[in-house]
Amino acid sequence: MTRGAPAALAGLLAGALLSGCGGSPPATGNDSGPADGSVGGGAPARTASAPEFRGAPLGLGSWQYQEMGGEAAAAFGPPASEARFIIHCDRQTGQVRFVRAGSISSGAGTMRLVSDRGSITLAARDTDSAVPEVEATLPAGADFIREVGDDHGSRFGVAIDDGKLLVMPDDPAIQRALSGCRAR
Question: What's the pTM value of the predicted model, to 2 decimals?
Fold first, then answer.
């Protein structure tokens, strides 16, 4: 059963925003790893080009911008459905949270974010929300955040572990949500 788009967006955003309350970045499942959400022991794994986009169709849906409790978020999803992906600026922690509908069988894994300029792989974990979601974080000042915020007219993609890439169009809602974090 699907709900109306505004109610679905508000519900998923509320869950995503509330699951991040507490002032500290989410656990990545690797207590000895870096606090920046990266994979391994250093900087997040990056690639310089995005071959994943070759021939990949755009996902069904559109972006919506919303502010809840002073926090900016951009959510992507089909009409009259739950959001499939959320970019949330957590101004208090200076982190950008990426929340994707779905789950990781082991509870922790990776989230791959792809733009036309390249990709980055982050440590990810299942959230504690009622709707199955996977989240990853990245500092608001990270190069990848700046590139996505400045990359107008391109595509953006996300995949959990080695799963299928959800490809989404660029939208002003993305830049608007990220601009609040970058201005911090």
Answer: 0.74
